[in-house]
TrEMBL record:
Protein name (Swiss-Prot/TrEMBL): Fibronectin type-III domain-containing protein
Keywords: Immunoglobulin domain, Repeat
Species lineage: Eukaryota, Metazoa, Chordata, Craniata, Vertebrata
Source organism, top-level taxon: Eukaryota
Annotated stretches, region: Disordered: 126-148
Length: 262
């Protein structure tokens, strides 16, 4: 500083480093992957801080999780969209994705990798089982049988849920509580009341959930099933048997009937 008496001693500031007030864009947040199929995936991300200069494009990369090499998913510029459907994935392979933003200063740091995904078609709920029917019954149980659903929804059928309802009631009751307790296309519903009519329905289950129910066509009255006694001779026996008087004749036959004849 200077006045009429002269100039003061100089005041020296702390050192400062000159730098550009503009910079490359910040790294985006972790991208999100959705709508995955066996050969494509939709990757979305949020727009990062642009560093003071407008973002001109995004660089989206992919890699298989067991690899260390990142590769661009397209040579075409991605902008202004903050999402891109990545094509040409290999079915069954596991992938990660990351994205970086670029402005006129340069390319910013890449985002953290996305959560890994497998390239496969999504699993949906299966179609209902086919043709459920009551194939046998006693005074306290009913045997049900059906065929697998036409469409498994893209996932393994874990099993089936069976429900029953007294005719006239509104509430359906569960015959089994977990699908894996009925892995086959048949089930024996027990604990029923003799003389009561019941409705039955069956649902197929995969990882996506339960199918719509398939219904046994007609209500079933719970009671013992009766069949008259029947004697069926062995077809290999001769039609005529000649024996001496006083000897024993032994016949080979199948005896049928419900309850079994005494």
């Amino acid at each position: 500083a200077e006045n009429l008496y002269g100039i003061s001693d100089p005041l020296i500031s702390d050192e400062m480093k000159a730098k550009d007030r503009f910079s490359v864009p910040d790294a985006p947040e972790q991208p999100i992957v959705k709508n995955v199929t066996k050969d494509s995936a939709l990757v979305t991300w949020n727009r990062p801080h642009d560093g003071g200069k407008p973002i001109t494009k995004y660089i989206l990369e992919k890699k298989e999780t067991m690899s260390k090499r990142w590769a661009k998913v397209t040579q075409e510029p991605i902008y202004p969209d903050t999402q891109f459907r990545v094509p040409d994935l290999l079915e069954g392979c596991e992938y990660e994705f990351r994205v970086a933003a670029e402005n006129e200063i340069g390319i910013g740091d890449p985002s953290p990798p996305s959560k890994p995904i497998f390239a496969k078609d999504p699993i949906v709920k299966p179609s209902p089982p086919i043709n459920p029917e009551a194939v046998d019954k006693t005074k306290s149980s009913v045997d049900l049988s059906w065929q697998p659903p036409r469409h498994d929804g893209g996932g393994k059928i874990i099993g089936y849920l069976v429900e029953f309802q007294k005719v006239g009631d509104e509430q359906w009751k569960k015959a089994n509580f977990t699908a894996d307790s009925c892995p086959d296309t048949k089930y024996n519903v027990t604990g029923l009341t003799e003389g009561t009519k019941y409705k039955f329905r069956v649902m197929a289950v995969n990882a996506a959930g339960e199918s719509e129910p398939a219904y046994v066509r007609d209500p079933v009255e719970v009671k013992d099933r009766f069949e008259p006694p029947e004697l069926i001779l062995d077809a290999n026996m001769a039609r005529e048997q000649h024996i001496k008087a006083g000897t024993t004749l032994r016949l080979s036959a199948v005896i049928k009937g419900i309850p079994f004849p005494k």
